[in-house]
């Protein structure tokens, strides 16, 4: 393995600032870590840079704080996965660092994942964007086009989006998701802007009103739910939560004194508060007692740790065992965390709520195509019917723009003052 690449600190520093990976004045620390790494890696010339990085981090571990270790690792990964990859993919024969082989789809995806995690993208977004990258790559291969050559990438993406609109007949929102995925990939991984794609074929845009249950239908629905899944559906409706937000609730997120639910790291990474229904207080307190009993049994068997966001587990090692951090709706069984390989109790999966909702809709005799998200739509609509201010509903839902919330005004105008049909006039 040849490790003779020269390290150009000035060029790397300019790259960090230009791509906004580091702020002015902070880039020098990343440069320092990479320079130290290059001095250290000379001791292991036959190993890959990933192996050398592991040796380097182990070597500095005893004299370095945890946050500095994370900074060092991020700096090295940015150098190889962002900076070098940009240089290599600027030509049609892009090569991986020191490898002498053509850049593979697997390596491209791995680099994309690293870049998205550096930017704290949600794992669901990461999964969707990777799927679109695979579909784009497959499309280019069928057309016998190199998918990652920056010289032709704008035309390739334009043709792929047209293919989705014309041949796949996808919705405008689906095509926009594909475009955002590819825009993010080329911007983060290859440091390349796609440019103006307005001249491409776009899927037809249509405005669809959300499916909403009436107050009577909602009451009928809740007569056919039960257990902790039924309680979860009620809290989604009562607080206007998204399904993932409900599944990830912790015991500490309920404020019974102020009657508030704290939604942490919601869509867009934002926190907010919403209303905690008084009707559910007793049931929620019983659920909390049940969760604590489960947690105590897990502790007795040597488990009881729960996943903590960001680096909290490293900063506060005992926090993962505290009752307040436990999920409000825990899974029925312990499982192995696929990333850390730690045996933990995860939260319930959204698919379980969707199944319970579907069964309840059928049992209640409701013919509308209602899903769990319909409860969130119904929450907003019913608040509007009761005269709640639109801006307040926007805050409860966590919408970034009031225009998104205004869709519900189109729903209630017909519910509040229904127009009499001329056929009814005729038969009076």
Profile the largest sheet. Answer: 3 strands, antiparallel
The number of E-state strands comes to 5
Rg is 26 Å
CATH superfamily of one domain: Intergrase catalytic core
Q: Name the CATH architecture of one domain.
A: Orthogonal Bundle
The CATH class assignment of one domain is Mainly Alpha
**What is the CA–CA distance across the termini?**
91 Å
In short:
This protein has 19 helices and five strands. It is mainly alpha-helical.
Annotate the secondary structure layout.
Layout: H1 9-18, H2 27-41, H3 49-60, H4 66-88, H5 105-118, H6 123-142, H7 153-166, H8 172-188, H9 215-222, H10 227-239, H11 243-247, E1 254-255, E2 260-263, E3 272-275, H12 281-300, H13 312-315, E4 335-336, E5 343-344, H14 350-363, H15 372-385, H16 390-397, H17 402-405, H18 407-416, H19 422-426
Antiparallel strand pairs: 1-2, 2-3, 4-5
What does this 3D model show about the protein?
The protein has 428 residues and is mainly α. Among the domains are: 95 residues, no CATH class; 198 residues, Intergrase catalytic core (hpI Integrase, Chain A). Helix content is 54%, strand content 3%. It contains 19 helices and five strands. The strands form two sheets. Strands 1-2-3 form a three-stranded antiparallel β-sheet. It has a two-stranded antiparallel ribbon with strand order 4-5. A hairpin with a 6-residue loop joins strand 4 and strand 5. Helix 7 packs antiparallel against helix 8 and helix 15 packs across helix 18. The longest helix is centred in the first third of the chain and has 23 residues. About 3% of the residues have low confidence.
């Amino acid at each position: 393995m040849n490790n003779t690449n020269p390290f150009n600190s000035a060029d790397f520093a300019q790259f960090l600032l230009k791509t906004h990976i580091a702020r002015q004045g902070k880039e020098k620390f990343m440069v320092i870590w990479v320079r130290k790494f290059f001095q250290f890696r000379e001791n292991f010339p036959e190993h890959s840079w990933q192996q050398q990085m592991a040796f380097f981090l182990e070597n500095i571990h005893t004299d370095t704080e945890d946050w500095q270790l994370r900074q060092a690792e991020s700096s090295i990964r940015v150098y190889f996965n962002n900076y070098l990859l940009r240089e290599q993919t600027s030509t049609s024969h892009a090569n991986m660092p020191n490898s002498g082989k053509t850049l593979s789809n697997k390596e491209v995806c791995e680099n994309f994942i690293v870049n998205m995690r550096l930017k704290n993208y949600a794992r669901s977004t990461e999964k969707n964007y990777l799927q679109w990258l695979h579909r784009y790559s497959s499309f280019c291969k069928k057309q016998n086009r190199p998918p990652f050559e920056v010289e032709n990438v704008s035309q390739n993406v334009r043709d792929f989006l047209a293919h989705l609109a014309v041949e796949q007949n996808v919705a405008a929102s689906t095509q926009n998701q594909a475009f955002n995925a590819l825009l993010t990939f080329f911007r983060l991984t290859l440091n390349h802007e796609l440019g103006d794609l307005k001249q491409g074929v776009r899927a037809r845009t249509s405005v669809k009103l959300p499916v909403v249950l009436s107050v009577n239908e909602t009451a009928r629905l809740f007569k056919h739910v039960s257990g902790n899944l039924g309680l979860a559906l009620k809290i989604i409706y009562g607080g206007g939560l998204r399904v993932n937000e409900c599944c990830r609730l912790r015991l500490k997120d309920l404020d019974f004194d102020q009657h508030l639910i704290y939604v942490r790291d919601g869509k867009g990474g934002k926190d907010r508060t919403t209303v905690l229904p008084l009707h559910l207080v007793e049931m929620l307190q019983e659920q909390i007692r049940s969760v604590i009993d489960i947690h105590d049994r897990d502790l007795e068997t040597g488990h009881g740790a729960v996943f903590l966001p960001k680096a909290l587990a490293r900063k506060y090692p005992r926090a993962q065992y505290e009752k307040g951090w436990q999920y409000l709706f825990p899974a029925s069984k312990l499982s192995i965390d696929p990333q850390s390989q730690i045996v933990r109790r995860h939260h319930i999966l959204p698919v379980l709520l969707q199944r319970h909702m579907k069964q309840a809709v059928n049992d209640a005799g409701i013919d509308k195509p209602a899903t769990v998200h319909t409860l969130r739509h119904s929450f907003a609509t019913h608040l509007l019917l009761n005269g709640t201010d639109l801006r307040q509903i926007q805050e409860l839902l966590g919408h970034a723009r009031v225009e998104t919330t205004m869709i519900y005004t189109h729903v209630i105008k017909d519910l509040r003052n229904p127009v009499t049909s001329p056929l009814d006039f005729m038969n009076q």
